[in-house]
Amino acid sequence: MKKINKNITIFRLSLSKIITILILVSSISFATKVSAQIVKDNYIHFSNTKELQNFFKYKGDGTILVSGHRGGREKNFPENSLEGFQNVLDKMPAIFEIDPRLTKDSVVVLMHDATLDRTTTGKGKLSNYTWEELLSVRLKDSDGNVTSCKIPTLEEVIVWSRGKTIINLDKKDVPMKMIAALIKKHKAEKHVMLTVHTGAQARYYYDRFPGIMMSAFSRNAKEFEDLSISGVPWKNMIAYVGYTIDAENEKIVNMLRSKGVRCMVSYAPTHDKLGTPGERKKAYKEDIKKQPDVIESDIPTEIWAILQSN
Q1: Three-state SS for 295?
Q2: Which tens digits make up the pLDDT trace of 126-138?
Q3: Where are the domains of the chain?
Q4: What are 70-111's pLDDT values in tens digits?
Q5: Which is the CATH superfamily of the domain at 32-309?
Q6: What does pTM read for this prediction?
Q7: Helical H runs in the chain?
Q8: Positive or negative: CA dihedral 270, 271, 274, 279
Q9: What is the pLDDT of residues 168-209, one digit of tens each?
Q10: Which of 21, 59, 236, 290 has the most other CB atoms within 10 Å of its CB?
């Protein structure tokens, strides 16, 4: 009996391990089959920058990561809003490209345009308003409807995003030293990524944060060479290569991947603008056949649905 009970105990332990493994496997399917530090509720978390770099490293395994352009412009939600980010994370794991800009009194807030008109109830240039004046302004959703959502500060978003996602800060009108100060203040190297347009910008951030990840422009040979001579390790980068992967950038893509760099495309200026979900789905599916490593989109949940169906 003792032997039988022991075997039963072993079986139960083995079954428990199998169930645990199955749960973990199902929870870490970010895009097609990427191994990520996903904890719960589609949240992404890294213990150190080495884990972060490994997550973004190109491994040639066919995995695709999804990034919400301007945080996502999903139906009924504003772009560059905490509510919009959370709406996406309620449905899928994602990273978010967002747009820091300066108010009149030098508060860093999120806003893609230099003016308030398109995305808010305000009028005119953002830089003409103080932060206090913006508190009464409300964001509009993707169809232009006024919501109860407020313009968030970058500091709010850095705090909110910790343990949940990676935020990729685009280069707008905020001085790099102000961005660096916020990252340093919140020790945010493990969950803040920086868009850089030149090798000099990449070097500025690398000198201050040696483990931080950057989304670097590398659409052609000139931009690739500029990054190469910057001295910033390739392990610190993903590369934005344009709207798609084609004959014009294929050579650059291959060189980047040979250095372990994932290549990102953006569907925001192209497929995202098609009028119906059916049209977009057809265009997305065709372009995904070109095997990008990261897809940036205004509508990340539609990309995610296609990747999950493959």
Answers
A1: strand
A2: 999 999 999 999 9
A3: 1-30, 32-309
A4: 999 999 999 999 999 999 999 999 999 999 999 999 999 999
A5: Phosphatidylinositol (PI) phosphodiesterase (3.20.20.190)
A6: 0.87
A7: 2-27, 49-56, 82-89, 131-134, 154-161, 176-186, 199-208, 221-228, 250-258, 277-288, 300-309
A8: positive
A9: 999 999 999 999 999 999 999 999 999 999 999 999 999 999
A10: 236
